[in-house]
Design goal:
alpha+beta, OB fold (Dihydrolipoamide Acetyltransferase, E2P), DNA polymerase, domain 1, elongated, four-way junction helicase activity, cytoplasm, DNA repair, ATP-binding, DNA damage
Length: 205
């Protein structure tokens, strides 16, 4: 099984790179984001590899980091997500952005991927929500609050305050982060109006 390739860029195709390793050309399929970051033909490159062996073919998928490869694997544990869709998601969102989007239940961010509709985006966010926080770089309190709002477990004033900020045009993740911070400083007994006021102040920083 091939796990890593180090060689010279030979040429590029629409969704792959031909990597010359000691005179042998390996066709490696990559996300659009990975292809954009690879160097010009003739220059050296290193790719983490996921090898797919089928009855009729062997296919190599390449990634700039082991973390990106890990997300490629994780995405395919979701029902209805194959290699093509997983690559498309990673072409739209960097691994850290994908982790944040899932941790914050931001289905809209995932649905920006070409070929990924609202239902698939919702499955990705729902089925990977327990794994994403480990990769995310957002405040655990915000992740917890986003989950509570999504599952309709958040206190009413908190849910109403987030809803009010969303109605004002802020994104759900932004609103959840601002209200989480407001809730921390105002205490659990804070009313909706106070949370909105503090949340807006947080957003204007």
């Amino acid at each position: 099984m091939i796990g890593k390739l180090k060689g010279l860029i030979d040429s590029y195709g629409e969704d792959y790179v031909l990597l010359d390793v000691g005179g042998v050309g390996y066709q490696v399929h990559c996300s659009a984001r990975t292809l954009q970051h690879l160097p010009s033909p003739g220059e050296a490159a290193v790719l983490s590899i996921e090898t797919y062996v089928r009855e009729d073919q062997i296919k190599l998928f390449g990634f700039r980091t082991d973390q990106e490869r890990e997300w490629f694997r994780l995405l395919q544990t979701v029902q209805g997500v194959g290699a093509k869709v997983a690559l498309a998601v990673l072409g739209t969102l960097a691994p850290s952005d994908l982790a944040n989007a899932i941790a914050l239940r931001d289905k809209a961010a995932v649905a920006r991927t070409p070929g990924v509709g609202p239902k698939v985006a919702e499955r990705i966010v729902t089925e990977l929500k327990d794994k994403a926080p480990a990769f995310a770089n957002v405040d655990p309190a915000v992740v917890h609050l986003a989950g509570a709002v999504d599952d309709q477990r958040a206190p009413r004033p908190v849910a109403d305050a987030i809803s009010a900020l969303v109605n004002l045009g802020y994104g759900q993740p932004q609103a959840a982060a601002a209200i989480a911070s407001a809730s921390r400083s105002a205490g659990e007994s804070a009313e909706t109006a106070q949370l909105i006021r503090l949340g807006l102040k947080e957003l204007s920083k």
